[in-house]
UniProtKB/TrEMBL annotation:
Gene3D superfamilies: Ribonuclease Z/Hydroxyacylglutathione hydrolase-like. It comes from Geosporobacter subterraneus DSM 17957. Residues 20-196 form the Metallo-beta-lactamase domain. InterPro entries: Metallo-B-lactamas, NDM-1-like, RibonucZ/Hydroxyglut_hydro. This is Glyoxylase, beta-lactamase superfamily II. It comes from the Bacteria.
Length: 216
């Protein structure tokens, strides 16, 4: 697993198999935050090792319901998991289908663990300046995480997997996705991480908007 430091308090863990999968750790002032839990306990083991001596409470964030972002949830017994309200519902309703179709990618044994805290519009952690925002696009339940202190946005899978495919598969509609992209441009950040791509600058949002408009 490749580990990259992002500014002062972010670490991007990239697991490479058939594709690159990013998990993100933010070491906050009050809490530590792990954004997405990947393919199972073995995927998140390097992150747990990294913070094993850190006594701060750990908060887990699921950016959306897809299997490659949630299968490691059950590796965090004593941590709160947060997602959008729709994400919890969609994990529960799609669990068996996702497991049957993609179980061969599992990294260790796991069980279904649903988020315990859900929200609809926004959720804010003022002591750490961490902002969770409902940003539908790739999926209807997608959220993004803005580190206001570091000006780093985690866009989940609202950014495509590679530089050649910046526009992700969009399971909502393109107009909804465009509205999320325009909202990104209104946010104060200069660095963007995502579920599968490399570390990017904010200007990539304009490039994605241009590609989406061209395709409509």
């Amino acid at each position: 697993m490749k580990v990259q430091k992002v500014k002062n308090r972010g670490l991007l863990f990239t697991y490479s198999n058939d594709w690159d999968l990013n998990l993100y750790l933010i070491r906050g002032n009050r809490y530590n935050y792990i954004i997405d839990t990947g393919l199972g306990p073995l995927n998140v083991a390097p992150i747990k090792e990294n913070i094993k001596d850190d006594k701060k409470q750990l908060i887990i964030i699921n950016t959306h319901f897809h299997w490659d972002h949630i299968w490691g949830n059950s590796a965090f017994d004593n941590s709160v998991i947060i997602s959008h309200k729709l994400c919890r519902e969609m994990i529960a309703s799609n669990w068996e289908q996702m497991l049957q179709k993609n179980g061969r990618y599992a990294q260790g044994e796991f069980q279904m663990r649903l988020p315990e805290v859900v929200f609809e519009g926004e959720l804010y952690f003022p002591e750490d300046k961490i902002r969770l925002i409902y940003t539908p696009g790739h999926t209807i339940d997608s959220i993004s995480v803005l580190d206001e202190e570091e000006k780093v946005l985690n866009a989940g899978d609202n950014i495509g997997d590679t530089m050649e495919e910046l526009v992700p598969s969009v399971y909502t509609d393109k107009q909804t996705y465009l509205e999320t992209l325009y909202r990104y441009n209104d946010l104060d950040f200069d660095t963007c991480v995502s579920g599968h791509n490399v570390i990017l600058e904010k200007k990539v949002i304009d490039k994605i908007i241009e590609e989406v408009l061209t395709s409509m």
